[in-house]
Design a protein that fits this description.
single chain; mainly alpha
């Protein structure tokens, strides 16, 4: 989620093209994170909408592009916790509860499901692995998904998850140890499958700009309304001045 300084400068001034370009950069990561953290699109879509809407209102407040990128990372995780019930266990035991249902859905309904095989029969190892992932404590789940999927290091994990770098690394280590303990010799294969499933959550290129245009239009509408009202006020003041000059000479 690297935002070029030039694009950020234009977006901060609420230039239409700059706003669209900035949103086009951050939107795919927000979509991937929300879908992966929540697991189903109906649950994740309000997270995506909320983060983009709030971000549109903060454009003029950010001091630099790094602040903007970190805001989107952090608030996507927070919104997903709130929406998806991910805050139910921010710590606790690293023991896997993964062979149970998670968030009232079967593993095959999960957007991260990678259990399909050429034979048509689902791979039970992958199903168990996804259930195990969903059974992890919330911050361990967040850490492993954001590390594998977005490539975040411990420092950026801490930013996204609102914790220290050391705490983020601890969550990640515990999650990886738990998943590897379950998967055994096949852990790297299953982790690779999970990473591939995460990557497939990226929205299609042709869908990105229509989405960000709608968002940027909403972001710029209040500014345009204020500009119109300012213009109307100036015109009214000028008219009143001319009329007074004609009347009183």
């Amino acid at each position: 989620m690297e935002i070029p300084p030039g694009i950020f400068a234009r977006a901060r001034k609420l230039k239409r093209r700059g706003v669209e370009e900035l949103f086009a950069i951050v939107y795919p990561a927000i979509v991937r994170m929300a879908l992966a953290l929540c697991g189903t699109r109906p649950v994740a879509q309000p997270v995506i909408d909320r983060v983009m809407r709030r971000g549109a209102g903060r454009l003029a407040d950010w001091r630099d592009e790094l602040t903007a990128a970190r805001w989107f990372l952090h608030h996507t995780v927070l919104a997903a916790r709130e929406q998806c019930g991910g805050a139910e266990a921010s710590g606790g035991s690293a023991r896997l509860r993964g062979l149970k249902k998670a968030h009232s859905r079967e593993a095959g309904d999960d957007l991260l499901d990678f259990s399909d095989q050429p034979s048509g029969a689902p791979d039970p190892r992958a199903i168990a692995f996804i259930r195990a992932l969903r059974g992890l404590p919330a911050q361990q789940r967040e850490a492993v998904l954001l590390h594998l999927g977005e490539g975040l290091n411990a420092r950026l994990l801490g930013v996204a998850m609102d914790c220290s770098t050391d705490a983020a690394q601890t969550h990640l280590d515990a999650a990886m140890a738990a998943l590897r303990s379950l998967a055994g010799a096949e852990s790297e294969l299953l982790l690779s499958g999970l990473k591939g499933a995460y990557g497939r959550l990226t929205p299609a290129a042709e869908a990105i700009f229509p989405a960000v245009r709608r968002i940027s239009a909403r972001a710029l509408r209040p500014r345009r309304i204020r500009r119109s009202l300012w213009g109307i006020g100036l015109a009214a003041a000028a008219t009143a001045g001319i009329m007074a000059w004609r009347k009183w000479g």
